[in-house]
Design a protein that fits this description.
By secondary structure, the chain is of the alpha/beta class. It folds into two domains: 133 residues, Rossmann fold (3-Layer(aba) Sandwich); 197 residues, Rossmann fold (3-Layer(aba) Sandwich), CATH 3.40.50. It is built from ten helices and eleven strands. It has an eleven-stranded mixed sheet with strand order 3-2-1-4-5-10-9-6-7-8-11, with helices on both faces. Helix 3 runs parallel beside helix 4 and helix 8 runs parallel beside helix 9. The longest helix has 30 residues. The radius of gyration is 23 Å and the shape is elongated.
Length: 355
């Protein structure tokens, strides 16, 4: 694996490096600490000859010294990895994306200011651009850090509560597979969630109310299938992380609101989501759900994309929302609706119990 970690010397990027150093990466993992030196912005009115906008040799040397020190500190924690550093000059958004492409990065990691409560702060323009245009999984580590010394919350011991959002699309299944490539700290807990439409969302008029019985049966079938598939994915994930660490939950409503609400109520410090990144004439964009969660979520977020081969995605799949296939095809294999389907938080218990 090759990781590009974009750093700028701020407390937010230090928090990102803490998170990076908390994992036991596979032997031979390459980590590139990458920083961009901004060019000076000099307005040149009336056709005057522009001055040299290249950062001074002193500034470049200072940046290299800081990166060398950070690389040495990270290397001491991750002895099986190879940690190097690079600098670039120009627009941070473009240079980070170019750096990831030139280094054939399998992951981009960067820090960003977090937020809590009613005052929502959007991601910075740099991190949002990288999140939307990156061609590989992007991890945005959010923190409440200020520039004051020792103010950043430490992530040296890793993420404690990881929320993984799933639906029945290849994108979220790829996200779960990606999560299995990481060596999570032993005390990390996971919640796997999926979201279905609320039954009341189907009643839009008096005419639709007449179909209440049919809609109710369809809703129960959708809930049962979502629960069954979620439990199946949880069982597979338990085989990887071990018993007693995974719970599941089926939410109902708008997936953006449900995911953010569960993340806040549960105290998630990382949300993992799959997303399609579409290129070409339509430009590259995240699904509305994953984008909303990345922008408005108070905690760190990992958007996994660029893994599902082209042509294997599902058209019209809304990331984060479980979709019901053709009822005629799946009616015969629908499981019974479990009695615990309305419970908000269901521990996944493998056969034989938690032990």
């Amino acid at each position: 694996m090759k990781i590009l970690a974009a750093v700028d010397g701020s407390a937010h990027s230090e928090a990102a490096l803490d998170a990076l150093g908390s994992f036991k990466w596979a032997e031979g993992t390459e980590i590139v600490l990458f920083t961009v030196l901004k060019q000076a912005e000099n307005a040149m009115p009336f056709g005057r000859k522009p001055v040299d906008q290249t950062p001074s040799a002193e500034v470049a040397a200072s940046a290299s010294q800081s990166l060398e020190k950070m690389a040495a500190q990270l290397q001491s924690k991750l002895r099986g990895c190879r940690v190097t550093f690079e600098t670039a000059q120009g627009d941070p958004k473009s240079e980070i994306l170019n750096g990831a492409k030139e280094n054939a990065a399998d992951m981009i990691l960067m820090g960003s200011r977090g937020h809590r409560g009613m005052e929502l702060m959007l991601l910075g323009s740099v991190s949002q651009a990288v999140l939307m245009q990156g061609q590989c999984p992007v991890v945005i580590v959010k923190s409440e850090a200020t520039e004051a010394p020792n103010a950043a919350p430490s992530l040296a011991s890793g993420f404690k509560n990881v929320l993984i959002t799933l639906d029945n699309s290849p994108y979220s299944k790829a996200a779960l597979a990606w999560a299995k490539t990481l060596n999570w700290p032993a005390d990390t807990r996971f919640k796997l969630i999926t979201v279905v439409n609320a039954l009341t969302d189907s009643f839009t008029s008096a005419e639709s109310a007449v179909r209440a019985g049919s809609l109710s049966r369809e809703h129960d079938s959708l809930h049962a299938m979502a629960r069954a598939e979620l439990e199946e994915m949880a069982a597979d994930f338990v085989d990887y992380v071990g018993p007693g660490r995974v719970t599941t939950q089926v939410g109902e409503g708008d997936p953006r609101e449900v995911i953010l609400h569960i993340a806040g109520a549960w105290g998630a410090d990382l949300i993992v989501m799959g997303s399609h990144g579409r290129t070409g004439l339509t430009k590259l964009f995240l699904g509305s759900v994953s984008h909303a969660v990345a922008v408005h979520g108070y905690c760190s977020v990992a958007i996994v994309k660029g893994i599902v081969p082209k042509g294997q995605g599902v058209r019209q799949q809304t990331t984060g929302m479980f979709k019901l296939p053709d009822m005629k095809e799946i009616e015969s294999r629908l499981p019974p609706i479990p009695n615990s389907s309305n419970r908000p938080d269901t521990p996944h218990v493998p056969p034989g119990g938690m032990g």
